Amino acid sequence: MKILVGSLVGGAALVGSTAALLPLAMMTSMGVSDVALAPVSSCTVDASGLTVDDLDTEQLKNAATIIGVAVSLKVPPRGQAIAIATAMQESGLRNLAYGDRDSLGLFQQRPSQGWGSPSEVRDPARAASAFFGGPASPVKNGGLLSVKGWQDMELWEAAQAVQRSGFPTAYAKWEGLANDVVTKLSGATSTCEPLAVGSWTLPISTGYTLTSGFGSRVHPITGEVRFHAGLDMAAPTGTPVRAAAAGEVTWAGVVSGYGNLVRIRHAGNIETYYGHLSAFVVRAGQQVQAGDLIGKVGSTGNSTGPHLHFEVRHNGEPTNPDPFLREKGLKP
Fold first, then answer.
1. What single DSSP character describes residue 173?
2. Domains of the chain (ranges plus CATH)?
3. What backbone phi and psi angles, to 5 degrees, belong to 186?
4. Maximum Cα–Cα distance for the chain, whole Å?
């Protein structure tokens, strides 16, 4: 059984690999960063022949995903066991489409409490990343890595600090199984692909203001709370918009909501989106380099004023552009 575990969140690759997320020596010049990237974008974990008592294939797959995320974030085995025990108690290590009130997924995270949209909390890799938290967290809720002294707590205490369950000590009964899962899966073979390499640059170099970040927000037009999949960079109409990295333009046209949109596919299954443009100067199939002019700031589509809506996606899933770019030495 080969399990692809990985979904890039905040520049930290969510993978089942023994490769650690190493500190990067970052150098920037004129908004462009050339960084030898240590993280990987995704890994295929070969769990063939591995068995864990009392776990079926579905549960083992979800456990492998959680551990892959943990390894990419440099969470030690103790933290991995806490996450596995938590998921066992909350969902039986199953990606549930139901739960108490609006609770969903492996960790029974609640969209109404800031854990993400219903589809996001049912993404096992993203849910695991949110549980662990830390700088790469896709949510603002505090995760395990934000709990002071979690390494020295009883397993149930650490889990409860994140989950805030009505039955805090219930996590303790899964500690033995969780330790067994971590021990067995830590020996699984993994094959990893490198994250997109080369120069990266901010899509707008200067003269912009960040007006909206990644995550849940009150939509400026509808007034509803919705998930915002990128960064909004307000700038005067006509401000140059540049490719964030080398790649191939896969779309240059009108998309509902985005208005005039350019999409660029980069190495490592990374895509960048540039929305609300007043004009674009590239076409689908065109190769571009980091810093190449691709369009100009505008206010097309669902927009309240001139700005660039910038997204980063990995395997089609939105990831927070802010820490992703900071990982490359760039500060949006």
1. G
2. 2-194 (no CATH), 200-326 (2.70.70.10)
3. -65, -15
4. 62
Do 116 and 126 touch, CB atoms closer than 8 A? Answer: yes
Q: Name the CA dihedral angle for 70, 72, 74, 79, rounded to a multiple of 10 degrees.
A: 0
Reading the block at residue 284, the tokens are: 């689908």
Q: Where are the beta strands (DSSP E) in the chain?
A: 2-5, 28-29, 32-35, 40-46, 189-194, 198-201, 209-212, 215-218, 225-228, 231-234, 240-242, 247-255, 259-266, 270-277, 279-280, 287-288, 293-296, 307-314, 317-319
**Is the Cβ–Cβ distance between 204 and 308 less than 8 Å?**
yes
Does pTM surpass 0.90?
Answer: no
Which helix (H) or strand (E) covers residue 120, if one does? helix 118-121
In tens digits, the chain (332 residues) has pLDDT values of: 434 333 332 222 233 322 222 222 222 222 333 322 233 344 445 556 677 878 898 999 899 889 888 877 788 899 999 999 999 999 999 999 999 999 999 999 999 999 989 988 999 989 998 999 987 788 888 899 999 999 999 999 999 999 999 999 999 999 999 999 888 887 655 554 544 446 899 999 999 999 988 888 777 777 877 788 899 999 999 999 999 998 899 999 999 889 999 999 987 778 999 999 999 999 998 989 899 999 999 999 989 899 999 999 987 888 888 888 887 888 88
Cβ proximity of 141 and 130 under 8 Å: yes
Tokens 């915002």 belong to: 228
